[in-house]
Amino acid sequence: MFYNIKQSVKTVLKQGMKVWYGLIGALRSHGIAFSGNAKRLLSYRDKYAGQRCFLVGNGPSLKVEDLEKLKGEVSFACNIIYKVFGKAGWRPTYHFISDVVAVHAINEEGMLDKVLERPLFSNKDVYEKIKRIRTPGEQVIYLNRINQQNYKVSKNPLAYYVPAQATVMTLMIEMAIYMGFREIYLVGVDCTNTFTAGHFGDSYTDKSVDDYNLAWVRKKTNRPNLTLVELGEERRIRSLDAYRKLKEYADQKQVKIYNATRGGALEVFERVDFDTVVK
Questions:
Q1: In Å, how far from its chain's centre is CA 15?
Q2: Which is the most buried residue in 128, 170, 182, 209, by most CB within 10 A?
Q3: Buried residues in 233-245 as b, exposed as e (16+ CB within 10 A)
Q4: Using CB atoms within 10 A of its CB, is residue 246 exposed (0-12), middle (13-18) or buried (19+)?
Q5: Residue 12 lies in a domain
Q6: Model pTM?
Q7: What is the dihedral of CA 221, 237, 120, 207, to 10 degrees?
Q8: Confidence class of residue 229 from pLDDT cuts 50, 70 and 90?
């Protein structure tokens, strides 16, 4: 009975947040923004109208030499991409983190300052996590977030977004559309089980980070017997569902999303040859 009451209260609070965030988003859409963060987020609306960008994932297919070819392009990257910085002169235009576990891993490696050298897009939870470690600064821009079981595309990031609870790439795509890009190219987005297929390189994360991730999800979802393989497969399936919804939304907005990843398992978006695109 107590559990049911708790869930009912959560549902009511979530609906209230949606209404409140919706009102805030409507005001921001008309240029009415009060906080510094809201004004910075508003400044990115259609900033790159009609242009193209590259969204870099951390899949095992990612190659350093490909990143070098992205110099001069607007590019988004995420999480622990800095692992390649010692091998490449390329740097992303924007960085994205949507998971406090990623902040934990980055901070443990003493690399948070390196990540914050460029504009970072995140959500309020990530912002607060960073704030407990150091002053975030104006380069951190956060979105309001509403968690729910099924992912849906936010039509107004100025209000809130719904995380896919599987990959930060959905937020990256939503923000690319919000910024006005009309051609979005995915690179290193393999859409495979990250706990079996891995990420780029041999030392993306160590076992302690995976264990921390699993423990955090087990506690959050009350599933003490969940394994890393199961978690990775669930996230892969959720990612595919989210990508299908994003493609439908992008088609409605007349935005083209191309998969320029070398290999991988993502077949939702039209595949293009990376070398042809960046020649």
A1: 24
A2: 170
A3: bbbbebbbebbeb
A4: buried
A5: no
A6: 0.91
A7: 60
A8: confident
Supply the range of the domain harboring residue 244: 17-277
Residue 10 lies in a domain: no
DSSP codes of every residue in the chain: -HHHHHHHHHHHHHHHHHHHHHHHHHHHHTT---SHHHHHHHHTTTTTTT-EEEEE---TT--HHHHHTTTTS-EEEETTGGGGTTT-S---SEEE---HHHHHHHHHTT-HHHHTTS-EEEEHHHHHHHHHHS---TTEEEE-B---SS----S-TTT-B---SS-THHHHHHHHHHTT-SEEEEES---S-TTTT--SSS-SS-HHHHHHHHHHHHHHHT-TT--HHHHHHHHHHHHHHHHHHHHHHHHHTT-EEEE--SS-S--SSEE--HHHH--
Q: What token pair was written down for 272?
A: 């293009």
Instruction: Dump pLDDT digits (tens) for 16-65.
Output: 999 999 999 999 999 999 999 999 999 999 999 999 999 999 999 999 99
> Phi and psi at residue 259, in whole multiples of 5°?
-100, 105
d(CA 170, CA 161) in angstroms, rounded, equals 10
Residues facing 121 on adjacent strands? 96, 141
Domain tally, the chain: 1
Core vs surface per residue 150-163: b (16+ CB within 10 A) or e: ebebbebbbbbbbb
Give the DSSP letter string of 19-57: HHHHHHHHHHHTT---SHHHHHHHHTTTTTTT-EEEEE-
Residue 7 lies in a domain: no
